[in-house]
Amino acid sequence: MKKKILVIGMVTVVLLGGGYLLFGGSSNSETDALPTVTVVRGNIVDKALAVGTVEPEREISVKSKVSGVVNRIFADAGAYVAAGDPLLEVKPDPTPLELAEAKRQVQLREVEMENLTKEKVRQEAMAEKKLISEREYEEFQRQYQEAQLQLKLSRERLELLESGKVMIEDTQIESIIKAPIDGFVLRKMVEVGDPVTPLTSYQEGTVLMKMANMGHLVFKGTVDEIDVGRLREGMEAQLKVGALPKDTIPGTLVKISLKAEKNENATVFPIEIALPKASTALLRAGYSANANIIIQRKDSVLIIPERVVTFRGDSAFVRAVADQGSQNERSIVTGLSDAISVEVVSGLTEGEEVYEKPVRAIE
Fold it and tell me: How much is the CA Rg of the chain, to the nearest whole Å?
């Protein structure tokens, strides 16, 4: 009987010891298996992402004030031209009816002018003899001067239709379209033989070329509505251009739209970033780019990966490494975050280690 009790006691001790080793020591073994990260000093930047393209600050549409067809092209796309240099020539192409009407109009005005010239002699004679009032004579003079102008106008119109150029007072009107600014021809919109509609007060006219000064470029893009409330004009920005992966181009946020746009069911706000003149030599109009707008930056602060922090309510906690590899949950105060790293304001010191969160098993 005593031997049986002794055997039962020994078995109980073995089971209790094994249970302690299996369950009591599991916490440390589980913690020991987790990797740790060290609290270090570093820089942390909060930024907003904008997606868009590099564009000229001001793009000009070149148009003609005379109708016709493109006769010659002097500058092709990509060419640099100075203000006043010829771009292309528009040859007048009036219909037979328009040309006939213009010629007949000149003849009618000449006949009218001839008759008024004869009448002028008679009016002057009557005015000297006081046979007509001064008011009647002044009215005839006005009529005579108007007829002179009408004849001149009809002759100028006929000359413009026939030759494509005419001098009006001190202004030379011609069919050669000249560059309005110093800059590059970005696009040529017409070819020789294409018809040209003139620019008037009631019609837009044919766009012949697109020009821009490539020394003044801007980034035009959009930011998500979540970020736009944190943006302010004058903020620093860093541009990454897809065609220039090794270069980071600085810029300054200069414009934030007051009106949102819909982009694939997302609400975004247009923005503009001015680029320094020194960097524009690298860029071409239409380059796709991403811009990081710096909202806030802190240098040489304590940081840890945000993934190791547990947030409960308004509080933040980490599992810090204690003596002999044990752990203790510690409350910390966090600051600036860039969604990857987070600033530690208090609760940890430089060089301390904290455990990664355990990876949940996939069931």
Answer: 42
DSSP assignment of 300-323 equals: EEEEEEGGG-EEETTEEEEEEE-G
Torsional sign, CA 63, 69, 71, 72: positive
Give the integer Cα–Cα distance in Å for 145 and 116: 10
CATH of domain 59-92+175-212: 2.40.50.100
pLDDT at 67 exceeding the cut of 50: yes
User: Domain residues of the chain, as ranges?
Assistant: 48-56+214-298, 59-92+175-212, 96-162
Q: Is 60 exceeded by the pLDDT of residue 14?
A: no
Cβ burial of 91 (10 Å; 0-12, 13-18, 19+) is middle
pLDDT category at 16 given cuts 50, 70, 90 is very low
Q: What is the pTM of this model?
A: 0.63
According to DSSP, the residues that pair with 168 across neighbouring strands are: 171
Q: Kind and range of the H or E element at 175?
A: none
Query: What was the pLDDT predicted at 18?
Result: 45
Burial code (b: 16+ CB inside 10 Å, e: under 16) for 258-269 equals eeeeeeeeeebb
Question: Above 80 in pLDDT, residue 361?
Answer: no
SS3 83: coil
Token pair, residue 225, equals 């509505």
Sorted by sequence, the CB contacts under 8 Å of residue 263 that are 6+ apart come out as: 222
Reported as a single tens digit per residue, the pLDDT across 23-35 is: 444 445 445 568 8
Please provide the CATH number assigned to the domain covering 48-56+214-298.
2.40.30.170
Q: Which residue type does 135 have?
A: R
52 touches 221 (CB < 8 A): yes
What pLDDT is attached to residue 166?
59
